[in-house]
């Protein structure tokens, strides 16, 4: 009985007013930059290189001695994100390899012991605060390195030479110490983005994905909300949100689509976020040239907005501290696009109708934005159209009038040849 009562109390998380305000800010922001960067960038094989190549802890530790990103310029990175129209940055502070990108007292495997010797988390957080972007910290629950991580229940890290039995309570204390540092020494933190929970569960799609060991999330989440009540918590567990979480994420997928079999969870009422790579890699990959086209990236941002979700677009900068031009060009393209079309993305809600093959809808009060993404669409039918009458219908880019017909609750929009943009946005104004 005691246990049940305790669990019930823990499950009753009431977000603070600052947290609710932060959720609203987050939903209005719509577009963020994900940065996967660290010593794992050096081999140019992605952030899973330690696991994928069975690099032992001892050998992997050498990467710390090689990490010296002399061309890194935090101001330039944040400036590039800002010019891309992004409103926040989600930075890897510690990935599965266990390397801490800040001046942590809880582990020697950190940036201060590299030849670079500068707190990268601080440099980027400070610059975000200076340039008016919000900062989120990605933090891995899973660790391929530490002896206290309870590896015996996991399904990754074989061959990396870790001990079989961990010291779970110690590991939880370690994470709490690190999270306390991150939420104490870096100013306002907009969110913590957890990952690695899935290492202790059956894979996605399995009937039972209960973790084999207790992650102590109630305790960890309570600590975060105590230190910074506005701080939003998300967790890449590919499950429905757990108590204490403030937003829900979808990896390499738009909410509810489950295109890759990673996201069986249904979209919830919490703010939503889709994280997506620009090529096929999160961390720097020297051979991955499968870049999405600018049009594909616009489609992702627009369709995410159509679902009422944010797009967290990833870059994996190079080990020298530069962002590769293929990423910078695409970011600049999107920023330029948003200068014209931003009003149909920022501060909007998802459409009354979910995204369709032709495109999708976003809404803001009495204005509806119809995003025509399929250039072959000739006429668009919007069934159960919520406005009784339309005051005006026009192209966002040049105010040109668009022909519409509303009958029996169905709005028919006739496409015209001037609709040649990657996303042709038609503005429909409600007549009240
Ligand atoms: C995770 C990380 O492993 C990956 O490196 C990257 O940071 C991404 C954003 O998040 O991706 C996953 C999540 C779940 C599984 C594998 C990779 N899984 O369940 O096997």
Automatic annotation (TrEMBL):
The record marks 275 as: May be important for catalysis. It comes from the Bacteria. One of its GO terms (molecular function) is alpha-L-fucosidase activity. It is an enzyme of class 3 (hydrolase). Pfam families: Alpha_L_fucos. PANTHER family: ALPHA-L-FUCOSIDASE, ALPHA-L-FUCOSIDASE-RELATED. Belongs to the glycosyl hydrolase 29 family. It comes from Parafilimonas terrae. Alpha-L-fucosidase is responsible for hydrolyzing the alpha-1,6-linked fucose joined to the reducing-end N-acetylglucosamine of the carbohydrate moieties of glycoproteins. The keyword Nucleus does not apply. GO terms for cellular component: lysosome. Keywords: Glycosidase, Hydrolase, Signal. This is alpha-L-fucosidase. GO terms for biological process: fucose metabolic process; glycoside catabolic process. Residues 7-343 form the Glycoside hydrolase family 29 N-terminal domain. Its EC number is 3.2.1.51.
